[in-house]
């Protein structure tokens, strides 16, 4: 049954994605908000399909730490699901992403039109300057900034590998940073076909106030996200074992 439901979900997900992409093409003639709207509809549809077909629900914890004011969100990144849910639950987010994703046909076009922040990780100092300027610009518009501090998806059991760029953005924006933990990699594993039933948990954690040193910020960020992620992964594994 797991293979059947995973197959059906993947076929439906990619088929629906193609349809939405083509239906939304006229929005490229309008303002950025049109691309953001179609991205949100795609995310909401994906979340719904995942629950109905694969039996994968989600739960948000720590909603009291989701302020309406602009902040920096620093999230654990285990799965494609993490970026999908971001456009479903955040209002007009500006996600920091690898520039290579812009080269993906249609997907990259939509993310660029929606005003996401792409970074060339090979450019080092110049890339960091552009990243800081873009983050400041989008935050000034009232958009929440979302960064995945490890730079790419990591498995639930992978050792943490936080990049220093998140500390540079934190210092530059002078905003609170909300850490986010998850166990999404258990249910939508990276580079794998299967989609496991159960409940993905996305947990918002107490804010890190602005003004900490780079070293103190990085230590606090890691010490906040990693134990919570470990707890959520253990919780998820117990749930999967029951199915």
SSE layout and pairing:
Blueprint: H1 2-23, H2 32-54, E1 56-61, E2 72-75, H3 80-89, E3 94-98, H4 107-113, E4 117-119, H5 125-140, E5 145-147, H6 165-173, E6 177-182, E7 198-204, H7 214-242
Parallel strand pairs: 1-7, 2-5, 2-6, 3-4, 3-5
Antiparallel strand pairs: 6-7
Cα distance spanning the termini: 11 Å
Give me the CATH fold name.
Glycerol-3-phosphate (1)-acyltransferase
Helix-strand pattern, N to C?
HHEEHEHEHEHEEH
Secondary structure tally, helices: 7
Number of beta-strand segments: 7
Could you characterize what this model shows?
- The protein starts with a helix and ends with a helix.
- It is 48% helix and 14% strand.
- It has a 7-stranded mixed sheet with strand order 1-7-6-2-5-3-4, sandwiched between helices.
- The longest helix is centred in the last third of the chain and has 29 residues, at 214-242.
- It has one domain (2-242): 3-Layer(aba) Sandwich (Glycerol-3-phosphate (1)-acyltransferase), CATH 3.40.1130.
- The protein is globular and about 50 Å long.
- The protein has helices at 2-23, 32-54, 80-89, 107-113, 125-140, 165-173, 214-242; strands at 56-61, 72-75, 94-98, 117-119, 145-147, 177-182, 198-204.
- Strand 3 (94-98), helix 4 and strand 4 form a beta-alpha-beta unit.
- Helix 5 packs across helix 6.
- It has 243 residues and is α/β, with parallel strands linked by helices.
């Amino acid at each position: 049954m797991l293979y059947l439901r995973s197959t059906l979900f993947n076929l439906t997900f990619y088929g629906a994605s193609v349809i939405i992409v083509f239906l939304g093409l006229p929005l490229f003639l309008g303002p950025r908000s049109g691309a953001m709207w179609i991205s949100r509809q795609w995310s909401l549809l994906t979340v719904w399909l995942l629950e109905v077909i694969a039996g994968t629900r989600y739960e948000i914890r720590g909603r009291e730490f989701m302020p309406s004011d602009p902040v920096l969100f620093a999230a654990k990144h285990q799965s494609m699901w993490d970026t999908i849910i971001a456009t479903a639950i955040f209002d007009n987010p500006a996600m920091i992403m690898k520039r290579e994703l812009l080269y993906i046909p249609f997907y990259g076009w939509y993310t660029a039109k929606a005003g996401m922040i792409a970074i060339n990780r090979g450019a080092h100092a110049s890339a960091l300057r552009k990243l800081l300027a873009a983050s400041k610009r989008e935050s000034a518009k009232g958009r929440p900034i979302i960064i995945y501090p490890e730079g790419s998806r990591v498995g639930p059991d992978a050792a943490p590998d936080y990049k220093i760029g998140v500390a540079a953005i934190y210092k530059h924006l002078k905003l609170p940073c909300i850490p986010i933990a998850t166990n999404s990699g258990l249910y939508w594993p990276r580079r794998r076909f299967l989609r496991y039933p159960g409940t993905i948990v996305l947990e918002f954690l107490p804010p890190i106030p602005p003004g900490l040193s780079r070293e103190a910020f990085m230590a606090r960020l890691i010490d906040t996200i990693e134990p919570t992620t470990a707890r959520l992964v253990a919780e998820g594994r117990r749930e999967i074992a029951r199915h």
